[in-house]
Amino acid sequence: MKNYIYLTLLTFILISCKKKNVIPEVIDVRELHFASDRILQKTHKPFNIGLWFKIQGMYEGTESFSLTINGIEAKESKIPKSAGAVDKMILFDIPAINQAGEYKAIFKYKIGKSSFISEKTIRVVEDFSISKIWNNLSQAYTKGNPIFVYIYQTEGFWFHSPREIVLASNSVGGTQQGIGEYRSNFIIPSKPFKSNPLIAGLDGEYHVYYKGNQIEEIRVFFQEPPDDQKLDINLILNQMRNIYGPEVGYTGSQLFKSGDFDIQIHHEYFGFTQAIIRKVR
């Protein structure tokens, strides 16, 4: 009789453990990338946010998810994932936010009774002038955006982490942080991005260089070797003249001025065609 009781208790314990393992309350997320389509968003302009994550374990029930920002629930985008996508990848269309500031994007994911929640800060500015961008790229904020979702003209969307570009002379020193790749349509990029410019006239891969917690300079790499050879520098310079006026100096590079900032266009600086932005006034 005792053996029967022990066997019954053991069976009950095993069943209880099994149920607990199969249906945990919190989903085990092993890797999560919560990314926006640019480092800063502009008022009155819709944008995109993407989630890419991996989950561990077995869960039962119907899958559901939502993303809210500024009290508004976003809609899942109809843009498809790029070919070869794995794991969970979700893209949201975010309605325009009409006031500058910081906003919490809250993502909720659920399978049956199991769920997890993740948050991300989105910074919105009034315009993409150099001064507005410069003043909103604190090092803590840029470090909190290590990956971006890129949207292509015909190939869906994908997630990319900016590479680190260490200059041969390390003339800047300090630390650097990639803040994404931004391109309009006036220069044909090697990757056909959906038009998504940041600073007017400067299409390319953006990197911020810091000394301490202060920005020393922003560099925009238009292309990279060997793609640089396909780049029409005259097209870039003409676009700069249309936006910022004629050059104000030439010392191995074309110099343009915009308010408190200088923009130097270097044709082949350490193998890269690039723009260097410095606050000088």
Integer average pLDDT:
84
Biggest β-sheet: strands ordered side by side in the sheet: 12-13-14-18-17-16-15
- The helix tally amounts to 4
Main beta sheet? 7 strands, antiparallel
Task: Write down the secondary-structure element order.
Answer: HEEEEEEEEEHHEEEEEHEEEE
| Distance from first to last alpha carbon | 91 Å
Low-pLDDT segments, ≥5 res: none
Q: Structurally, how many domains make up the residues?
A: 2
**What proportion of the residues form beta strands (DSSP E)?**
35-45%
Q: What is the β-strand count? A: 18
- The percentage helix is 10-25%
Please specify the SSE layout and strand pairing.
Blueprint: H1 2-22, E1 28-36, E2 41-42, E3 47-56, E4 63-69, E5 72-73, E6 75-76, E7 88-94, E8 101-111, E9 114-125, H2 130-135, H3 139-143, E10 148-151, E11 157-160, E12 175-182, E13 204-211, E14 214-221, H4 233-244, E15 249-250, E16 254-258, E17 261-269, E18 272-279
Parallel strand pairs: 2-9
Antiparallel strand pairs: 1-3, 3-7, 4-5, 4-8, 6-7, 8-9, 10-11, 12-13, 13-14, 14-18, 15-16, 16-17, 17-18
Protein architecture, described:
This protein is an alpha+beta fold and 281 residues long. The protein has 2 domains: 27-126, Immunoglobulin-like (Sandwich), CATH 2.60.40; 162-281, no CATH class. Helix content is 16%, strand content 42%. The protein has helices spanning 2-22, 130-135, 139-143, 233-244, and strands at 28-36, 41-42, 47-56, 63-69, 72-73, 75-76, 88-94, 101-111, 114-125, 148-151, 157-160, 175-182, 204-211, 214-221, 249-250, 254-258, 261-269, 272-279. The strands form 4 sheets. Strands 12-13-14-18-17-16-15 form a 7-stranded antiparallel beta sheet. A 5-stranded mixed beta sheet has the order 2-9-8-4-5, with no helix packed on it. The chain has a 4-stranded antiparallel beta sheet with strand order 1-3-7-6, with no helix packed on it. A hairpin with a 2-residue loop joins strand 4 and strand 5. The longest helix has 21 residues, at 2-22.
